[in-house]
Amino acid sequence: MTADTTLALHGHPFSSYTWKALIPLYANGTAFEFVEIDPSVAKFESFTGKAHPSGQFPVLTDGDTVIVEATSIIEYLAVHHPGPAPLIPADPAEAVVARMLDRVFDNYVMGNMQRVIAAYFVDKDNPGAGGMRDEPYAPEIEAGKAGLRRSYAWLEGWLSENALPQHVSLVTCAAAPALFYADWVEPIPDDGPRLRALRAELLALPPVVRCVDDARPYRPYFPYGAPDRD
Ligand SMILES: N[C@@H](CCC(=O)N[C@@H](CS)C(=O)NCC(=O)O)C(=O)O
């Protein structure tokens, strides 16, 4: 940490929600220290385990201030560490739409993707502990994939009638990691051309490229074995 840096982001380079908090930091060139989760420390004994109500990461610290939840981290950065990327649209009506899409990507894309991944672990609420199941739990996988297909159809319909903010925003931060990993779990279908194009556009953004590249060494840990693309 440099003397003029008070920000620290606690997370893991392969974690989708950590990407969500890294993208705004990279997009705005904000100085911060990255503190990588130590997998050898028991979840609820770790800093993030104690800081977050469910023991999850990312967690942002700014001096003595602790901010949990990736969306709130982005809102905090927009207020306290603004930069060239506005993150939250200046127009209040556009900000409402950005926050709605953030909920859609978190709850129904990220959530269903995580549901599928959790089906591979012995302790679905604590994937780092207990290891992988001998056989993944098929009903959870099917339910998560069905949820993803419904979310893809909803987003394709939304994109056919609406435009996203042109700048890196809360929507970018939520959508990029969600679509990156969800497409590995359940590929976006051919009848979702707008959503497929959005995923490709997001993956070409420099802050997202950096997240993807920094996570490459961890791909063997992906329960399916990561697909050989992206
Ligand atoms: N609602 C949280 C979700 C964070 C989350 O799911 N983090 C995952 C990593 S991507 C995690 O902490 N996994 C470890 C665990 O749940 O024990 C947020 O928006 O920040």
Task: Name the features.
alpha+beta; four-stranded mixed beta sheet; 50% helix; globular
| Strand residues, percent | 5-15%
How is the biggest beta sheet arranged?
4 strands, mixed
Weakly predicted, low-confidence segments? none
* Fraction of residues in helix: 40-55%
**Principal-axis shape:** globular
Return the average pLDDT rounded to an integer.
94
Structural class: alpha+beta
CA distance, first residue to last residue: 31 Å
**Gyration radius, rounded:** 17 Å
Q: Strands, helices and their partners?
A:
Blueprint lengths: L6 E5 L4 H12 L5 E4 L10 H5 L7 E4 L2 E4 L1 H11 L11 H27 L19 H24 L8 H16 L7 H11 L2 H10 L15
Parallel strand pairs: 1-2
Antiparallel strand pairs: 1-3, 3-4
Helix pairs in contact: 1-3, 1-6, 1-8, 4-5, 4-6
The structure holds glutathione.
Glutathione (GSH) binds next to helix 1 and helix 3.
